[in-house]
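Why do we bother with holo predictions? Because pocket geometry can differ from the apo form. Keep that in mind while you read this record for flavin-adenine dinucleotide.
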Amino acid sequence: MKLPQTAEVVIIGGGVMGASTAYHLALKGCRDVLLLERESFFGMQATGKCAGGIRYQFSPEINVRLSQLSLPMLDRFEEELGQPIDLRYCGYLFLLTREEDVAAFRQNVEMQHRLGVQTEWLTPAQIAEMAPLIDLEGVLAGTFHAHDGLADPNSVVQGYVSGARRLGAKLLNDVEVIDIHVAGERVQGVATTRGEVATSVVVNAAGPWAGVVGRMAGVDIPIVPVRRQIVVTSPIPEIPPDFPFTIDFAQSLYFHREGPGILTGMSNQDEPVSFDQSLDAEWELTHMEAAMKRLPILKRAGLASHWAGLYEVSPDAHPILGRIPEIEGFYCIGGFSGHGFQHGPACGLLLAEEILDGAAHTLDITPLNADRFRKGQEIVEYNVV
Ligand SMILES: Cc1cc2nc3c(=O)[nH]c(=O)nc-3n(C[C@H](O)[C@H](O)[C@H](O)COP(=O)(O)OP(=O)(O)OC[C@H]3O[C@@H](n4cnc5c(N)ncnc54)[C@H](O)[C@@H]3O)c2cc1C
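The structure, written out:
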């Protein structure tokens, strides 16, 4: 397809955030939307490399509320968009090994109950009954919410891409945005590897590259890339179909069933900010040693695949969602810091409302505004994995 010379809205980035925004703009009647993705396929970066976890268990209210909007959208996804997304509600099981985490999670569970999320508090004996394959050494307590689980990120992106196209939006691959034209503090257009597009609205949905795209418009968007790795094992027949998405919270170590094997990840807290997506073999060893201690049956499995991807990290591990105040017509949907896939449906809808109606109204997103870092209004999140 030829690059259009104008568009009402240009979206930079075709991961879950860009695709959801394009779909929801078009659904609300704004059809002259142009999404530009530099890769040859959509969803190849953070979204396609993610673990697919979806949960209600968060520590700040805003994340629970985003889940309460977003996860029901995933429930309705196939009906609305005609695209199956392999939804599995296996539950999320958090394992707590530090007294301070036990105290913080008690408060989280209270808040979750207040919002209507029925997270269960578990003793080690109850965890042993629920997940007998897990070694519970050092585990003091746990939390479990049965309606947390998994969905397939690539299917969600594809569903939104096809849905947006059916509504008339244009979504192009192999087009890189290389500059954003701003005059008189207003967006005027973008320069791409295939030519210029005039527009008065630009959405920065560039994920780990959101900071780079911000600089194209001359603004500081504090979102940085941090490498995270995943290992998927060969089949382990003993893993039951209802094996929960298990998180050893203190170690940032997680497991879930992936086909007939296990997918596991562990966050290296000393990982420097960088766009490096090569596999760190040394960290993989550290990760697998910890994983085999917690889930000893992994010793019997082989390696099926492994990869590295990038978290898009903001200073308070929360998204920057909405208008960028310095430049009229410039919006950001980024900085989800490792748990954005599940909030893609909700955030695309909320940003479409902000762009077309002047403010998001399905949920108040003012706590996620770009100005909060300058004003010292950062959000405190405890459940970052
Ligand atoms: C290992 C790992 C595990 C994760 N696990 C989970 C999980 O279990 N649950 C969960 O909810 N989240 C998880 N996440 C986080 C989740 O993947 C992200 O929060 C989410 O996918 C971000 O989506 P995005 O659309 O902002 O970014 P991306 O998917 O990275 O999309 C941004 C797109 O912008 C494109 N782009 C960048 N610059 C330009 C440019 N100049 N011109 C054109 N295109 C450009 C990129 O090519 C990219 O495709 C995980 C992430 C990783 C890395």
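The mean pLDDT is 97.
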